[in-house]
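Figure 2 data, in text form.
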Amino acid sequence: MSNGLSEREQVVLSWLTRGLSNKEIGLALSISPRTVQNICNASIRSLGCKPGPKQLFESISGQGAPKA
């Protein structure tokens, strides 16, 4: 993943694409869920995609969001 994202953004988005929640990602990385959300928001701005997890997933993976 090299879309002009920082290393931290890439790590968080990697966990996000595996279906982890902000809380779970925060626990894994020793950061708060709010920090995870802020990193996701920065990623959205960097990628120029519309806000929302589905749009972010599609932008970084090139495919549709995972089925629940």
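Caption note: DSSP finds four helices and no strands in the chain.
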